[in-house]
Amino acid sequence: MASTGLDRRQFLKSSALAGGMLLSINLPMFRIANANTKASSDWCIYVEIKPDNSVVMASPVMDMGQHMKTTGPMMLADEMDLDWDKISFAEHCPAYLNKSEEGEIGYQYSDMGTGGSHAVRRNWDYMRTAGATARQMMIDQAAELWRVNPESLSTKASYVVHSATGKKLSYGYLAKGAATKKVDKSRIKLKQTKDYVIMGRDTYTVDLEQIVTGKPLFGIDAEYPGALQVMILRAPAQGASVDKANKEAALAIPGVIKLMDIEAQNEEYWTKDEKQIVSAGIAVVAESLWAAMQGKRALSASWKPSKAHQDQSSEHQQAKFRHLVAGDFEAKVRKNDGDVQAAFSQANRLIDETYETPLFAHACMEPFNCIADIREKDATIIVGHQFPHMVAEEVEKNTGIDALSVEVISQRMGGGFGRRFERDFLREAIYLSHTLKQPVKITWTREDEIERDFFAPAYVMRVKASLDENNKVTGWHHRQAQTRGGARDDCFPAKLVKNYKTEHFEYPSKIPTGPWRGPAHLQWTFAVESMTDELAYQANEDPLAFRFKLMQPHQAHDYEGWGAESIDSGRMAKCYESAAKMAKWGRKLSKNHGLGIAGHFTFGSYAAFVIEVSVSEQNELTLLDAWGAIDCGFAINPNHIRNQMEGGFIDGLNAALFNKVTVEKGQAVNNNFHTLRWMKMKESPNNIQVDIIQNNFPPTGVGEPPTAPAAAALANAIYAASGQRIRQLPLSDSIRI
Amino acid sequence: MSIEFKLNGQSVRVKASEKDMPLLWFIRENAGLKGTKFGCGIGQCGACTVHMNGEAVRSCSITVAQVKDTNIRTIEGLAKQSGELHPVQQAWMQVDVPQCGYCQAGQIMAASAMLSKNPSPSDKDIDSQMTNICRCGTYVRIRQAIKIAADNLAKEVV
Questions:
Q1: What's residue A29's pLDDT?
Q2: Which of A457, A641, A702, B77 is least surrounded by Cβ atoms within 10 Å, i.e. has the fewest?
């Protein structure tokens, strides 16, 4: 029998709860050294079927606003033919981990990580197969009881039905016997799209009522018996250390138990940089959070700046980037198709412009927090983190406790955006609990969150492009400078422009950076889609028609970048077309109004937006309505796809308009929302109409794709309304809003 | 002298020594009501919005001493005693507003306070009075939900 046979993938276990049945689907793909059994009485990807036919289930992937806590169960429930209305959803999602022989920590069952818009892609086959397998087990059990051929049975809304006699049995009744059934792989039939009853329909957030009634779902809300409350006074600047602190005053605050010095921890980052993963500071350990906060304030510390960080300034860095891309310096060549120089020398028109984006903050709405209980041989961590396996890994690395002895309880996250991929807030809590030999809960402030952010890298991108006498784009040269992170040069116009060259300078920097929602995609799109617009106007062609021409011939090309296998200009064109159609592109607009369009491909999904703006004679910008079209393959939950399209686009507009962190001498100067302006209701579009392109491609993500086109769409709309071409973010430096 | 005020209809007492504690932390840590959220600590983001005598206030930026003898209502106290959700909560569910959900309690408290004063707000009113930050950008749905809630509140009056 094939080792990947589904009969080997599955086992059903009896739940301890009132005769209910617990289903877990086990994949043999990883060699399991020592399965973590600690959490097995809780729920994760498991489906518990109770005798009354009600069901408890949960998503393998925790929610951070990307709606996976709803989407994950939908995939399994549909294939299993569960009655969606009879399902209740578990709040917590313990991590089920395993370890390869090489010691690498992974997921025992489904992939529980979330990032790169991969949660749907990576769980699609797994979750459906799990559901279809369980469904077949129910059928086999009913067939045995009724002594009929399983082929004569069907399932509907948590029942097995024998249509010849009209008999039916509930899953709740069948579950116990079904637990012993083995199903051969050959008998697992996945549904066709037309047979879905849960997927493809508007489905509501599973935690909706808990959210609107303020239930404690988030990490910051979690409590743990005996946990000491900790606030850490962190060095506000990179590399700084404590000079003086009034420790007596802090210790005199009632409830303050102890102060602990935290040493800075650095680790190698990227190729030649060092990244400070934990900054120096003083931890105030207290009986209550309020005592810890007061203690922190009473320290009134002064800081010794780090000499090595004195020259770290975002403005200085940006000036260097400009200098690099403007000059003849040799850069690292990334792609070089055809011959751009030849194309430029034969050009009818040549445009050469430079686009800039600053450091973006993540500003996750929920400041970081972590509960750690590090015991002698095992540990419990309660936290909202995008990658639960990294939490266990971090415990092992810092304490020597086997990662498989770590219970990781994932909480709902108040935003992630790539920042909850980092481990600094884990490491602090682990260190403190390990040292104190007591459970602790650490809570960050907003200032901590921004000062210690791993920002989206800043970019300066110079784009040179040529048109021939027919206004066809013949050459494209993208030359950029940034700190870390690359260019999304596998995305369009790659493959569309014959002579295509990209290169970059990597500039050493101590300003920390990390993944930010669709890393490098928004920045790339700002340059590419602004330039495409500039070319269209140069050619005296309609920007939409110009894009349609650029997308010809419609073709799927191999994609060499991360997160997809192919990129299809026809699918992209369709998104432009749909967004433009909704916006009634080409209509007569009011005076000082303009429409801007931009589209992009992010991690397998295509999105295009049109936005209408007005720019007054006083250079005052107003965002009006927006229209967005997305092709994310089969639309599992149209309601949440629309929600992501609205919110993701607004996040991109915020990045375009306001999101800029200024670093001086290694310190983020604007460290809270009074100085880091953030988009509010009054600046946001009133309406965003969304179209989901219908097709049968496998589903791809929607968390990041709507963000990328926003900055270019807005800059293009401002140009259309006012004739003002802004090539530098944030746009609000150049226009009033 | 202790400080007294009403929290969701119940009298609570705070030791005078804790008079400088921001209301937010009293609500979350002492009263154990976690629906009111910490977002910025400086009254900018509105995640901590509660009602003080029916007005929306940012609980991170007022002290316990400042709410002496007032009625404080949090998200946990917004639904009717019967458990029936407030029309604003119902509208939020009807539209399925949230993404991460962290700011939504504050948004709902801000919206319900606004509607109690101005039962049919224009888009301009919504723009000027809904100043809470939603990091996920659910503003389009928040606006829709406010309009639905306004309609439903109008029906209740009739």
A1: 26
A2: B77
